[in-house]
Input
Amino acid sequence: MRLSFVISVCVVVVCLGMGEGAQAAEEQAPAKKNPYLYNTGQTSNDLLTRLQSLAMSGDSDACYTLGAKYINGEGVPQDYSLGVKWLKLAAEDNHAYAQFDLARVYLVRFDEFQQNKQMAYFWANLAAAHDTLSPRELDKALKLRVLIEEELTEDEVRASQQAATLWLEKHKKNMN
Output
C-alpha cells in the first residue's frame, strides 16, 4: 500500500508538472505583451527584476510565476523556500494555480521542505473549489484531492475540510 502510494504520488507530480497553470493562463491570455514572459531583447535578469517588482507590489500572478520559477529552478537558482514563500503569497490571495501547486509541494518532500499531507489536502480543496481553473487543471486538482484523502484519517480529512471552509469564508472578497 505504502509503495503504491509513493509510486502514485511520483506519477501524479511528474504528470501534473509544476507551473502548468502559468502555461494554461498564458495560452488563454489576449495577444498583448505578457509581463510574465520574455519579450524581445530582454534578458532573464530583466524578467526576474520585473517579476519581483510586480510580486512585491502584490500581483498574485507574478507571485505565482516567481514561486514556480524558484521551485523548478527556471531562470533562477532552485530554492524551495523562496518558491514556497511566493506560492503561499499568491495562494493566500486566492490564486487557484498557486493553491494547486502548493498542494503538490506539500504532498512530496523537497530537500528541506517536509511533506505534510494535511496541508496538501487543504490546498487541494481550495484549488478544487475554483471556477478559474481550466477543466483539465480542475480535473487534476480533484484527482489530487482524492489521492491525498485516501492517505489521511477521517479526523485529518474533517479538520482540513473545516480549515478550508473557514479560509473560504474569510477570503470571499477575493473570490472570482
In short: Residues 154-170 form the longest helix (17 residues).
